[in-house]
Amino acid sequence: MLTSRPTPNYDGDGIVNLMARLNSAMGGDAGWYPPMDLPGAPVLDQAPTVVLWIVDGLGDRYLAARPSSMLAAYRRRAATSVFPATTSAAVTTFHTGLAPRAHGVTGWFMHVRELGAVTAWLPFKPRCGGPVWTDQVPAAAELLEQPALADGWPAEAHQVMPHAIINTPYTRATAGRAVAHGYKRLEELVERVATLARHDGSERRYIYAYWPDFDALCHERGVGSPEAAALFEQADAAFARLLERVAGTGAAVVVTADHGFVDTAPSRMIHLRDHPDLADCLSLPLCGEPRAAYCYLRPGMEQRFDAYAAEHLADCCAVYSSGELVDRNWFGPEPEHPAFRHRIGDRVLLPADGWVVKDAVVGERPFRQIGVHGGASADEQLVPVVLAAP
Length: 390
Fold this sequence. Notes:
Layout: H1 15-25, H2 42-46, E1 49-55, H3 60-64, H4 70-73, E2 75-80, H5 87-96, H6 100-103, E3 109-112, E4 117-120, E5 125-126, H7 140-144, E6 156-162, H8 169-175, E7 179-183, H9 186-197, E8 205-211, H10 213-221, H11 226-246, E9 252-256, E10 262-263, E11 269-271, H12 276-279, E12 287-289, E13 292-295, H13 302-312, E14 317-321, H14 322-327, E15 347-351, E16 356-358, E17 371-372, H15 378-381, E18 382-388
Parallel strand pairs: 1-8, 1-9, 6-7, 6-8, 11-16
Antiparallel strand pairs: 2-18, 3-4, 4-5, 9-18, 10-17, 12-13, 13-15, 14-15
Helix pairs in contact: 9-11, 10-11
């Protein structure tokens, strides 16, 4: 049973287990994780079309506060995200069916030793800015080293993605054999998915749809903002329209998210520039997320780092050995990606609810986000699992 202070779960209650259940429903081979116990899930086993729609940033607690919505009406249960609770790690789980320990994507900023640089993984470019890595370096697919989960299914596979990201290195790396379909507006997403679901072919069909707008707005305005509430209503109406459009096709529609949100404020930001003694312990810029920062320590700096954090940050930030979180299965159980240990640093700074920790590199824009995610609070970790078979 999920608690009000969940830790990432991979034993049956997490999004990795939802993907294990979809894998079973679509005829895939048994994987590493137990399938989720999902009320109503038997419809997935026979549905000619299975839709997985990711509403980026939609937390289960946010949805629970809107009980009259259509999405709430079809909500079956909550699930935990992965750690960190962030798009790059969780969406890679949706594509591969693997936990972060196995797929090796550990946050927005990763120290990718193969490239010798701190890298923004989803746009696949250096953190310090500039264009994406060129073809002269290993592609994202080579660094990911994991096949798309849907490639193992006896079914057609499709992806409905925003035009802006449909041909990025990361999207190409995780798409496998899926056919890509672009869209610009939410209404187009609904129409693309509905058209694909109304096919009359003999082969089963899997449709992965991704909508990032709610996440983007929450970062800018905050998850508690009226603008976020208005955009949620648009998403809820789009869900209702999708059910109308696929009615009678036998399609099963699953809606979930990669993470939820908490709001922060300037008074709850830990700036590394204000802690030069702590910064002096580091060999690299902070990696990971503002809500879960990986610290790479200079040799011999472990005791100094730990002592400073205990004295100056204890009221607003917990400090963990990265290995301790591995042992606690926060990143998932084995198997383990060969580069995983190089991508989580030596220590993890985990700010208290509503707090963030930030540094800056040359040329980087100031951090101005209001809505944030990546940590282990219930608002960030818990996401809804919605299932409808109109």
